[in-house]
């Protein structure tokens, strides 16, 4: 029913657009626990309708198969790894796991999708609002001592396996980037040249908006304002990791879901990191990695991961950025109907 409604709305909007190339078709659906907004430039009605239908089908499968605590493919893989088995996986999952392992290695381990068991300890696999407090430090110490990491994963033609006991994969730090990349590939395959896909404040652009670059506003992590405006080139992604996305308050302390795999605790030196990269997978993983890396290491980790465009807001609200990002930043000139805000979804009041 949802897909039929979405496609019907697309057809109506496209019909209203006529031949005006600067008109935008906007569609919204709920998937992967967030709102996904798709904006298309001038496109053939049939191509747009087919693309939107294919995107929704993909997202419905994706949110089932790539959630570690469900009954999809990733959950089945985790069950097999727990039992010491080699598990056959789809080509798509194997490719994402290879990307995740490579990006983790480049980050020096500050991005590590092998932290699923730690995420469970903190309760961030469920609703943070229901968490009464941090886990027993002894349990965190036990997880650190076990040392399970995605680096221990073996990915071969015969399947995926590990020699590390207790490894539980959580692809939450990279899966949204992969889903956004898949949506862009669908649009390109359907012949759509101008679009932007925004999954809960993380997005990727395609082409232009009526001949002009897509403009994004970087959200302030502690307010409703915009820190700066950036134009995105064709194919570029902008992803944000923030301490406001999933957290709970305990003894006047904000405890959030971005966990440092070297300490077992939330990284407490950063409010938000925004990364612009050539694809969603890299931008998503790098935003997490640079957040965890902190003031002493974030620039080095960015270089190691091939990231040249990043903006960091530290715990005090101080803003710093890479040189290339500073060159791209403009001060906000008002709300602007053509500015799309990144890093804004899920912000708690």
Topology readout:
Elements: H1 2-17, E1 25-31, E2 34-40, H2 45-65, H3 73-82, H4 91-106, H5 116-122, H6 137-146, E3 153-156, E4 159-162, H7 175-189, E5 195-199, E6 202-206, E7 214-219, E8 226-232, E9 237-242, E10 247-250, E11 253-256, E12 270-277, H8 280-304, E13 309-314, E14 319-321, H9 323-328, E15 339-342
Parallel strand pairs: 7-15
Antiparallel strand pairs: 1-2, 2-5, 3-4, 5-6, 6-9, 7-8, 9-12, 10-11, 12-13, 13-14
Helix pairs in contact: 1-2, 2-7, 4-8, 7-8
Distance between the termini: 32 Å
What fraction of residues sit in β-strands? Answer: 15-25%
Q: Overall pLDDT, averaged?
A: 88
Low-confidence stretches: 1-21
How much is the radius of gyration in Å?
A: 20 Å
The succession of helices and strands, N to C, reads HEEHHHHHEEHEEEEEEEEHEEHE
The CATH class of one domain is Alpha Beta
Q: Helical content, roughly?
A: 25-40%
Shape: globular
CATH level 4 superfamily of one domain: ApbE-like domains
Keywords:
three-stranded mixed sheet; eight-stranded antiparallel sheet; globular; 349 residues; T-fold; alpha+beta
Structure description:
With 349 residues, the chain is of the alpha+beta class. The protein has a domain at 2-42 and 194-342: ApbE-like domains (T-fold), CATH 3.10.520.10. It is built from 9 helices and 15 strands. It has helices spanning 2-17, 45-65, 73-82, 91-106, 116-122, 137-146, 175-189, 280-304, 323-328; strands at residues 25-31, 34-40, 153-156, 159-162, 195-199, 202-206, 214-219, 226-232, 237-242, 247-250, 253-256, 270-277, 309-314, 319-321, 339-342. The strands form 4 sheets. The protein has an 8-stranded antiparallel sheet with strand order 1-2-5-6-9-12-13-14. The chain has a 3-stranded mixed sheet with strand order 8-7-15, with no helix packed on it. Strand 5 (195-199) and strand 6 form a beta hairpin. Helix 2 packs antiparallel against helix 7 (175-189) and helix 4 (91-106) runs parallel beside helix 8. It is globular. The relative contact order is 0.14. Mean pLDDT is 88; it is low at 1-21.
């Amino acid at each position: 029913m949802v897909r039929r409604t979405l496609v019907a709305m697309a057809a109506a909007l496209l019909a209203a657009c006529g031949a005006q190339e600067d008109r935008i078709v906007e569609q919204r659906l709920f998937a992967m626990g967030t709102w996904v907004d798709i904006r298309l430039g001038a496109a053939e009605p049939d191509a747009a309708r087919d693309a939107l239908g294919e995107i929704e089908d993909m997202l419905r499968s994706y949110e089932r198969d790539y959630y570690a605590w469900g009954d999809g493919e990733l959950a089945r893989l985790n069950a097999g790894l727990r039992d010491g088995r080699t598990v056959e996986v789809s080509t798509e999952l194997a490719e994402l796991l290879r990307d995740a392992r490579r990006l983790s290695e480049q980050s020096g381990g500050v991005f590590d999708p092998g932290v699923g068991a730690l995420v469970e300890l903190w309760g961030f696999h469920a609703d943070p609002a229901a968490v009464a407090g941090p886990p027993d430090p002894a349990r965190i110490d036990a997880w650190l001592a076990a040392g399970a990491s995605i680096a221990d994963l073996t990915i071969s033609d015969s399947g995926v396996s590990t020699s590390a006991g207790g490894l539980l994969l959580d692809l939450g730090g990279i899966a949204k980037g992969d889903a956004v990349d898949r949506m862009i590939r669908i649009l390109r395959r359907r012949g759509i040249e101008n679009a932007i896909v925004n999954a809960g404040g993380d997005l990727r652009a395609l082409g232009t908006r009526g001949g002009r670059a897509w403009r994004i506003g970087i959200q302030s992590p502690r307010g409703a304002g915009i820190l700066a405006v950036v134009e995105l080139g064709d194919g570029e992604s902008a992803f944000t990791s923030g301490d406001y996305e999933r957290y709970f308050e305990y003894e006047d302390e904000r405890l959030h879901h971005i966990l440092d795999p070297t300490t077992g605790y939330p990284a407490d030196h950063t409010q938000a990191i925004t990364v612009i990269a050539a694809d969603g997978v890299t931008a998503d993983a790098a935003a997490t990695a640079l957040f965890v890396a902190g003031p002493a290491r974030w620039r080095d980790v960015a270089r190691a991961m091939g990231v040249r465009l990043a903006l960091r807001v530290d715990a005090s609200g101080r803003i710093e950025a890479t040189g290339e990002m500073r060159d791209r930043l403009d001060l906000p000139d008002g709300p602007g109907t053509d500015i799309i805000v990144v890093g804004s979804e899920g912000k708690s009041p």
